[in-house]
Design a protein that fits this description.
Helicase, Ruva Protein, domain 3, about 450 residues, Rossmann fold, 20 helices, alpha/beta, flat
Length: about 450
């Protein structure tokens, strides 16, 4: 039963509100002053405080501020007589959720409380989801219960404390920058800067100045000295995304930084020492780029000291349900919407889809669905057409043009195993029962198909 504390110096109004709210299922206590209300908190913890703005002694605004200072989770709604709406708005700035203008109709008070209840329930559910995900299935901002992601997490935890250069590889959208951030946040560099730059998004003519800085007069538009990103990241971490796009002349300068720990700005006559941990990422196969003569071999070996391969989402489908929970919680809080779950039919489509855009694409699809959803649960009708079109794994295989029965059987078997693992949250005993095979046979097939 929700608890309400009514605070108003008018006795008749207190009695009216107590009667009304009790009739509609609330547990109610009343206080004539803010001071009395604060004293009642010792033995009555309200979910909601309904307080007048103007009262003798401590005002309603001061009461709201004091509740916040004490760490009370009670949601405050202020009541304001005509002519003092400005005070009500001031109370909302102090932390009140809403206000009701006096004189009011009974329905207005009930509506304000119902809105506050829905908002508070959604907030608490979002907190619960985030805490559950963080505690069980995540590292930093990354989410994943699959063995493939657990291996990534373990590698990050082991490597974080060292200055060793890390090369993060994976398809677009898998979360390579999140890996770099986790390496930074778990290291003793966490209080220093984390700087990220996309080497493919800046023209080569500007990238050298961006990375290493320049002196005034170094070129036509150099009207003042500029610090480069290596200098900005001194003591911290520099994340070089899309490193495979780095021009050849800058590959030489990067190699020098990694070997000697010094940089030289454009137009400068002396080197400057920097202490930067470099994390690089690319979607390209750098070994192939070296063979093709597009990437320096010595730089490749300097970068490839420790490699972290982030698996695509299609190879870790058992992570999709927990990612859905995470995105629903985060989007619910950000967009202020009440979508709390995903129907079984929609979940099947989401698990079956191959996600060429990986986790980034999944998040975008969930956000679109949340905005379009009319109920409290996402259904198949809320999902894009491309998910419906690719839901049949047999059609996916046949579209490849391969007519091998043996390969088709292996493809379907792998697909069924991934779906069973996703449906059971990675529980292999339960998945084996769904597949009607022994637990031992499942373990063998999981290993054979590279599913963890």
């Amino acid at each position: 039963m929700p608890r309400v504390l009514v605070v108003d110096d008018e006795e008749n109004l207190r009695l009216v509100l107590q009667t009304l709210l009790k009739k509609h299922g609330y547990e109610v206590q009343a206080a004539a002053t803010a001071e009395e209300a604060l004293a009642r908190l010792a033995h009555f913890e309200p979910d909601f405080v309904l307080a007048d703005v103007r009262m003798p002694g401590m005002s309603g605004i001061e009461l709201v501020a004091e509740l916040k200072r004490r760490g009370s989770e009670a949601v405050a709604i202020v009541m304001s007589a005509y002519g003092s709406v400005e005070l009500a708005l001031e109370a909302m700035k102090a932390g009140a959720y809403d206000y009701v203008a006096k004189p009011f109709k009974q329905d207005e008070v009930l509506l304000a409380l119902r809105k506050a209840e829905e908002r508070e329930q959604l907030r608490r559910e979002n907190v619960r989801l985030r805490e559950a995900v963080s505690a069980r299935e995540g590292l930093g901002r990354m989410i994943g219960r699959s063995e493939a992601m657990q291996r990534v997490f373990r590698t990050i935890e082991k490597a974080a404390g060292y200055k060793t250069t890390v090369l993060v590889q994976g398809e677009s959208g898998v979360g390579k920058e999140l890996v770099a951030r986790a390496l930074h946040d778990l290291s003793d560099r966490a209080k220093a800067a984390f700087v990220a730059v996309n080497c493919g998004a800046i023209p080569g003519s500007l990238l050298e100045s961006e990375l290493f800085g320049h002196k005034r007069g170094a070129f036509t538009d150099a009207h003042a000295d500029k610090r480069g990103l290596f200098e900005v990241a001194d003591g911290g971490t520099l994340f070089l995304d899309e490193l495979g796009e780095l021009p050849a002349e800058l590959q030489v300068k990067l190699l020098r930084v990694l070997q000697e720990g010094t940089i030289r700005a454009l137009g400068a006559t002396a080197d400057k020492a920097v202490d930067v941990r470099v994390v690089a990422a690319t979607v390209r196969d750098l070994a192939a780029e070296v063979k093709a003569g597009r990437f320096r071999e010595d730089l490749y070996y300097r970068l490839d000291v420790l490699r972290i391969e982030v698996p695509p989402l299609r190879d870790r489908r058992e992570d999709i349900p927990v990612l859905l929970e995470h995105f629903l919680g985060r989007l619910g809080a950000r967009l202020g919407v009440r979508v709390m779950g995903v129907s079984a039919e929609a979940r099947k489509l989401l698990v079956a889809y191959d996600w060429p855009g990986n986790v980034r694409e999944l998040e975008n699809v969930v956000e679109r669905a949340v905005v379009l959803a009319e109920g409290s649960e996402l259904g198949p009708e809320d999902l894009p057409e491309r998910l419906h079109a690719s839901s049949d794994p047999a059609k996916v295989f046949l579209a490849s043009g391969d007519l091998s029965i043996k390969k088709m059987q292996a493809f379907m078997e792998r697909e069924l195993i991934m779906r069973a693992l996703a449906a059971t949250g990675g529980n292999k005993t339960a998945a084996a029962k769904l597949l009607e095979i022994s637990h031992r046979a499942l373990l063998y097939k999981v290993k054979d198909y590279g599913l963890g």
